[in-house]
Amino acid sequence: MNLVATLGAAALLTALAAAALAVVASVVGLRRHDRAAVAVARRAIYAVAALNTAAFLLLAYALFTDDFSIAHVAGVSSSNMRTVMKFASLWSGQPGSLLFWTWMMSLWMAVFAWITLPKISWGAPHAVGAMGAIIASFLVALVFFASPFRLSPVTPVDGQGLNPLLVDPGMLIHPPFLLTGLVSTAIPFVIGATALMAGRLDNAWIRHARGWALGSFLVLSVGNVLGGWWAYTVLGWGGYWGWDPVENSAILPLLPLTAFLHSLIVQERRGMLKAWNLVLVLAAFALAVFGTFNVRSGLVASVHSFAQSEVGPFFLVLLGLVIAVSVVLMIWRLPRMHADYEFESLASRETGLILNTYVMVVMTLVILGGTLFPVFSELFRNIRITVGPPFYNDVVGPLLIVTLLLMAVGTVLPWRRAAPGLLRRRFAGPLLLSAGGTLALAVAGMRDTFAILGMAAVLLVLTATLREYTLGARAVRTARGVSWPAALGALFNRDPRRYGGYLVHLGVAVMAVAVIATNVYQDRTRAVVSPGDTFEAGGYTFEFHDLLTRSPGVDGIQMEIVADITVRQGDRVVAELDPGRRFFTNFPDQPVALVAVDGNLRRDVYLFVQGWDENRLTEIQAFVNPLQQWLWIGAGIFTAGGLLAFAPFRSTRAVEVEAAAPAGTQPV
After folding, report:
1. Do 266 and 389 lie in a common domain?
2. Coil, strand or helix: which one is 331?
3. Cβ atoms 196, 333 nearer than 8 A
4. Angle of helix 484-494 relative to helix 449-480, nearest 10 degrees?
5. If residue 609 lies in a helix (H) or strand (E), which one and from where to where?
6. What is the pLDDT of residue 297?
7. pLDDT value of residue 659
8. What are φ and ψ of residue 623, in 5° steps?
9. C-alpha span between 599 and 571 (Å, rounded)
10. Residue where one domain finishes, among candidates 355, 377, 404
11. Tens of pLDDT along 27-48?
């Protein structure tokens, strides 16, 4: 008997029982108005989190001690792997990722039960019951379909080791952020479902959902950006987003979450979009469950997918239940979701915000349709037709430009209605500056239509956002007589939600610059060279010296064969790069890329070795990606803005500053 496996399986089974207790106790508390029963249900959620934590730690112990009698450990680890990579293997493979998913979900729910549940006495039984039902569903999958503590029929001498594509430092950060972001969508879902079940359809649920939705938005955004970074630095195809079906599944919940964070402002300020906001939070979680099903069902082919298994149909049923419950609740309460006010003018901030959310939903439907298109084509025409990157670039690209334009317009427009004179004053500066900047780019040689339109939208976002910072900082300087930097800092102290949101907009604009530059102006060259040969790409000369062999001797790596390459620009040596291939002892047919990148603020020089023959004739692919580093810089600005918007702090002088601010700069 394996004690670790027995304790781990027992912890998960007991957690399932605790989740069921949470559901039963919440129902009893609701029907009998029994606060003690609701308290029991709340404690059961804490117990689920504690038991899942115990299971997670037990699996970690099994990995660190090379307990290959456990099938998951034997399948994802080996004795020569470093401890840090053994830790990363905790969330690799189907059982490990499901355990991490369920563990993180239980932690989010426990924190929600601790912080927010006492503040929503009007819906506490509904919320704790919904949490218990959701976490119980995932525990059923772990206990009965994909247990991480299942024993191997025969204990191997050594484990197979981690999948070669996952032997990378990115494995330590990308999957945890992405999985955590996906599971966190359960909390806004619970709050929205609670509002529907309790019939509390005013702004009460919005106030509590905003912080949790923003936290989910931040973690999921970082997870997606880290995924792009990992793809760029590991996979070797010169890009960061390939519209892979599983990549699509990761970004799908983010879009309705983003839309919700914009449209909830309209409900707060004008009492509108009550039904729409509920649809968005319910859809975000449903899409997260869809992603779980997509990855684990074999529905679509992807380098990120797990092997097809019996857990796939289970998650299809779960997805159907989530959608069915959401639809029933919405239909039930729809007659009570009347807007408090009507639209007064199309030239208003609420119009800009609403149109922005509609565009995001359209993008969601386009990406979802493209992801599922192979399935439907096979179902109706018996031919599996795959939708590739050109489709997404041609359809989603223009929608992104529209989103940028609406982002700028919504920033400048006032609430309720705008007089023609006010519109001219507010738009004159941003329009003139963006038009002048676009003209300058065209004169400098930019001819691509998509690039010109995209940069025009980016410049409009930048100028409109900087206008808001300038007006706000000027008001602070007038009121307090401080320097410009101090005035800007005071804005974030006064209204972090608003000005942090503007910083997110700036981050998006900076990221858009990198996306436009790399999509339109990437220079790619394929060369087949012998030692001593040179080739050119993007104004650089590459000299291939020879192939070299290295033997790291860790993480199951048998050897690395790299190309010794000098990069020159004219007579100046720019970099010495060593792209190559990595070979693994237990995966002889799965060599992985060793990408070499030399980056600066102007461009990335990116090299990848496709292969070679016995005479050292080597195929090398070189990419020169302009402004690539600005994608990661923009992501940093984006994240900083989100954190500032999330921070619940205000200075004691906030009232004084707000009183001094002009009408056009009042918080949104």
Report:
1. yes
2. helix
3. yes
4. 90
5. strand 603-612
6. 64
7. 36
8. -125, 135
9. 19
10. 404
11. 999 999 899 999 999 999 999 9
* Mean pLDDT value across the chain: 89
* Residue 150 lies in domain: 1-167
Which of residues 141, 167, 193 is at a domain's end? 167
Cα–Cα dist 390/450, whole Å: 14
What pLDDT, on the 0 to 100 scale, is given for residue 654? 38
The helix (H) or strand (E) run that includes residue 535 is: strand 534-537
Summarize pLDDT for 287-320 with one digit per residue, the tens: 999 988 888 766 665 544 444 567 888 888 999 9
pLDDT digits (tens, 9 = 90+) for 595-652: 999 999 999 999 999 999 988 999 999 999 999 999 999 999 999 999 998 865 443 3
Q: What is the pLDDT of residues 359-395, one digit of tens each?
A: 999 999 999 999 888 877 877 777 777 788 889 989 9
Q: What are 537's strand-pairing partners?
A: 540
Average pLDDT over residues 574-603: 93
Residue that the structure tokens 């004739």 belong to: 617
Contact (CB, 8 A) for 661 and 475: yes
Q: Count of domains in the chain?
A: 4
Euclidean distance between CA atoms 267 and 213, whole angstroms: 15
50-91 confidence digits (pLDDT tens):
999 999 999 999 999 999 999 999 999 999 899 999 999 999
Q: What residue type is assigned to position 665 of the chain? A: T
> Do both 208 and 159 map to the same domain?
no
For 501-559, write each residue's pLDDT tens digit: 999 999 999 999 999 999 899 999 999 999 999 999 999 999 999 999 998 878 888 89
Is 486 in the same domain as 557? no
3 state DSSP class of 216 = helix
| CA atoms of 449 and 457, how far apart (whole Å) | 12
Task: Clarify whether residues 2 and 116 are in a common domain.
Answer: yes
| Under 8 Å between Cβ of 271 and 350 | no
The pLDDT score that the predictor gives to residue 543 is 96
| 494 three-class SS | helix
How far apart CA 476 and CA 491 sit, in angstroms, is: 8
State the residue for tokens 């594509």. Answer: 165
Cβ count near 364 (within 10 Å): 22
50: which residues sit within 8 A by CB, 6+ positions away? none
Instruction: Report the C-alpha gap between 520 and 445 in whole angstroms.
Output: 13
Distance between CA atoms of 357 and 338, rounded to whole angstroms? 19
Rounded distance, CA 188 to CA 127, Å?
A: 11
- The residue behind tokens 């087949």 is 528
Residue in the block written with tokens 């709050």: 191
Report the alpha-carbon distance of residue 305 to residue 294 in Å, rounded: 8
Return the bridge partners of 623, or none.
Answer: 524, 606
Same domain, 345 and 485: no
One-letter amino acid identity for 222?
Answer: V
How many whole angstroms from its chain centre is CA 624?
26
Beta-bridged to residue 552, according to DSSP, are none
Tokens coding 323: 């959608």
Return d(Cα 459, Cα 510) in angstroms, integer.
10
Q: Are 514 and 535 part of one and the same domain?
A: no
What end-to-end distance do the CA atoms of the chain give, in Å?
62
How far is the C-alpha of 604 from the C-alpha of 537, rounded, in Å?
A: 12
Q: What is the pLDDT of residues 242-252, one digit of tens each?
A: 888 888 999 99
Which residue is associated with the tokens 């030692």?
531
Q: How far apart are CA 278 and CA 282, in angstroms?
A: 6
Angle at 254 (CA atoms; ends 505, 145), nearest 5 degrees:
160
pLDDT over threshold 90, residue 426: no
Q: Is the dihedral of CA 460, 461, 465, 470 positive or negative?
A: negative
Type of residue at 241: W
